[in-house]
Amino acid sequence: MPMLIAAAAVFLAIHLLISGTRARDALTGRIGEGPYMGLFSLASLAGIVWLGFAYAQARHAAADDVLWDITPLTRSVQLALQLLAMLLILPGLTTPNPTSVRQEASLQNPEVVKGMLRITRHPFLWGVAVWALGHLLVNGDLASIMLFGSMLALALFGTVSIDAKRRRKLGKGWDAFAAQTSNIPFAAVAAGRQRLSLGEIGWWRLALGVIAWAALGWAHPLLFGVRAFP
Q1: Mean pLDDT of the 165-174 span
Q2: Is 21's pLDDT higher than 90?
Q3: How does it sit in the membrane (predicted)?
């Protein structure tokens, strides 16, 4: 467990204490945007690999440390949450978005706020948050709580970190974009600043999300040794 805690702490620190802060600004000022992105990508890859190995070891060593068990209800809720997660993640990844890596230029498009961005300006990260929450429901062992809890924290705090980073870099253009959108899903719609338009999202994006959900559910026992579907 100590190794898993250390891996989770380093992985969170890379993303929340460096990537989204003025430390990143200082580093890119010294070495340039390209080299920084290369080093950050390598550090992130190393961090996720370390986290995966540490999780496997911790879960095996502390298999009896279970705080809650899976039930038919939590399994059903988990499946629904994973579908919602894919409907956020896949359309989010395929929609032009100023919050995404190297897509700041999309802010220059006066019609950039459409589709998924009417729901939230961080569809991918909210999808990851829903994914992590669903896995927490059906994995009550301490190692899983540490892993998926870290992913949940990273996704939620990551939205705030990215907003701060984009605000520093893009200035008034970002402020105008943020005023039209919301971090929390559907908050801008509820406030009347946006309207929901499934057609704008693109039915092919939604279909891609459903296909990914079904494929991952089918492959889950092959990839992770645990059945996802009943």
Answers
A1: 91
A2: no
A3: Multi-pass membrane protein
Specify whether 102 is located in the same domain as 4: no
Q: How far apart are CA 203 and CA 190, in angstroms?
A: 23
Parent domain of 80: 65-224
The residue among 20, 39, 61 that closes a domain is 61
Average pLDDT score over the chain:
91
16 and 53 assigned to the same domain: yes
77 and 50 co-located in one domain: no
Q: Is the pLDDT of residue 63 over 70?
A: no
H or E stretch at 52: helix 33-61
Could you read off the pLDDT of 182-198 as tens digits, one per residue? 999 999 999 999 999 98
A 10 A CB-CB count for 161 gives 20
Average pLDDT over residues 135-139: 95
Task: Calculate mean pLDDT across residues 79-91.
Answer: 97
Do 191 and 89 share a structural domain?
yes
Decide if pLDDT at 222 tops 80.
Answer: yes
Same domain, 44 and 116: no
Q: Which residues pair with 141 in a beta bridge?
A: 66
Backbone phi, psi, residue 129, to 5°: -60, -45
Nearest of 95, 90, 79 to residue 214 by alpha carbon: 79
Residue 21 and residue 161 in contact, taking contact as beta carbons nearer than 8 Å = yes
Phi and psi for 192 in degrees, rounded to 5? Answer: 85, 5
Query: Which of 15, 34, 61 delimits the end of a domain?
Result: 61
Rg over alpha carbons for the chain, rounded to the nearest Å, is 19
Number of domains, the chain:
2
**Averaged over 126-138, what is the pLDDT?**
97
